[in-house]
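Researcher: Re-running this chain for the archive, since the previous output was lost when a drive failed. Same request as before.
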Amino acid sequence: QVLLEESGGGLVQAGGSLRLSCAASGRTFSTYSMGWFRQASGEEREFVAAISRNGGNTNYADSVKGRFTISRDNAKNTVYLQMNSLKPEDTAVYYCAAGPLLLGGVLIRASQYSTWGQGTQVTVSS
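Model: Regenerated structure tokens:
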């Protein structure tokens, strides 16, 4: 089982940038597909971005395409979410997730993920 810890959240002005990090424990990090989800107050959890276990394939929600970039550094056991041109509607708790060993492609549904981090708050002011 992999353990995940998000960091990098905070308060930022609209139009600004922020980078989230998700540090994973375990020596088999490279075998996990990874994803980012977010949940705004009073809203359902929604998909943000996903990356295959080797980083060769990515997928993004329409709402963040062209603004967010997911990447991973398997040598550092870390997945990142670079967030540019932030908007107030990006305000949410952001969660990192790891998929099961069997699934190595891009996973876009929350039900496909096996392990979740505790979340980090991102607040974008106008």
